[in-house]
Amino acid sequence: xxxxxxxxxxxxxxxxxxxxxxxxxxxxxxxxxxxxxxxxxxxxxxxxxxxxxxxxxxxxxxxxxxxxxxxxxxxxxxxxxxxxxxxxxxxxxxxxxxxxxxxxxxxxxxxxxxxxxxxxxxxxxxxxxxxxxxxxxxxxxxxxxxxxxxxxxxxxxxxxxxxxxxxxxxxxxxxxxxxxxxxxxxxxxxxxxxxxxxxxxxxxxxxxxxxxxxxxxxxxxxxxxxxxxxxxxxxxxx
Amino acid sequence: xxxxxxxxxxxxxxxxxxxxxxxxxxxxxxxxxxxxxxxxxxxxxxxxxxxxxxxxxxxxxxxxxxxxxxxxxxxxxxxxxxxxxxxxxxxxxxxxxxxxxxxxxxxxxxxxxxxxxxxxxxx
Lengths: 238, 123
Fold this sequence. Notes:
The complex is a heterodimer of chains A (238) and B (123). Chain A has helices spanning 36-46, 80-84, 109-117, 137-141, 160-164, 172-182, 190-197, 211-215, 222-237, and strands at 2-10, 20-28, 65-68, 71-74, 89-93, 100-102, 105-106. Chain A is of the alpha+beta class and 238 residues long. With 123 residues, chain B is mainly α. The longest helix of chain B is centred in the middle third of the chain and has 29 residues, at 55-83. Chain B is built from five helices and no strands. Classes of the chains: A alpha+beta (238), B mainly alpha (123). At the A-B interface, α7 and α9 of A face α1 and α3 of B.
C-alpha cells in the first residue's frame, strides 16, 4: 500500500459562503495502477459527503468529467500514475467555467443549450424507405471521428471562448456534432444549418488554440471539424 | 443565430474573411516597403519620400490603412465582447463595452483619415 494525497474542491452553496480545498490521504495499492475515480471512491469512503457524478466507470457515459491536476478528463479512465506522477498528489476540481451545484458536480445547462442549438438530429423530409436510409461505405466513413463524442463536456469547458461567451459560442462539443450532421449524406438541411452558424459568435469565436483536442478523452478533433464548418461556410457564402 | 449590431459585417464569415484578407494586405505592404528600402541606392529622406510619391504606392498605402483599420476593428470588437460584458463587469458591463467600442471606433476613424492625409496630402 502507498499513500495518495488528494486535494478536493468542496463547495455546498446551501452551507458554504465560498469554496475551499479539502486535503485527504488515502491508502492505495502499491502493486497496481488505479484510476482517478478509484482514488476518489477511497476518499468518499473516508468522507461520504464528497459529491461527484459517475456511472459506467469505463469512459462511455461521460458523467465523471472533472479537472484533474489542471487538465480536464474523465476520472474513470485517467490512470493515477499519469495524472499524479511519482508525487502521487491529486488535485480535483469541477469542470471550469460552469456553475457549481456541489463539490465536483457542475450545472451543464448552458452546455446542453448550445448542443440543442445545432439541432443534433437527422433532418430529412423525404418519406423513409422500407428498411433504412442507405449510405455508401465512403459516405459512412466521413462520420468517423465525429459520432463517437460522449458529451462529457471536457473539451467545451477547457475552451476560453466558451468561458467568455457560454451563451453565444456553441463550443467544441456542439460544433463537432454540428459537423457530424453537416457531413452526413442523409441530412438535407445543410444550407439551413450553415445559415444558423454564420454569425460572429457561434463558430467564429473559436481561436483555434486546440485545448479541446488536447483534453478529449475519446481522442477526437473538434478543431478540425470547426475548420471544415468554416470551409463549408466559405464555399456557401462567397 | 446570435446577432450583434456592432460587428463589422454582422456576419461571422465576413469578419473572418476581412481579418485574413487585411492581414495579407498588411504583409504585402510591409514586404513592398522593405524591398523598396533595400533597393534604394542610398537611404535618405528624399529617397523615402520618392518611394511614397508614386501613385501606385499611394493607392497601395491607402488600401493598407483601410485594411489596418478593418483588421483592428474586428480584433478590438472580439476582445471587447470577450471581456467587457455583464458576466465579468456586472450591470455596467454593456455600457463600458459600448463606450470602449465608441472610443476605439473614433480612434480608428482618426487613424484612417490621418493616414489618408499623410499618403495623399500635398504636404
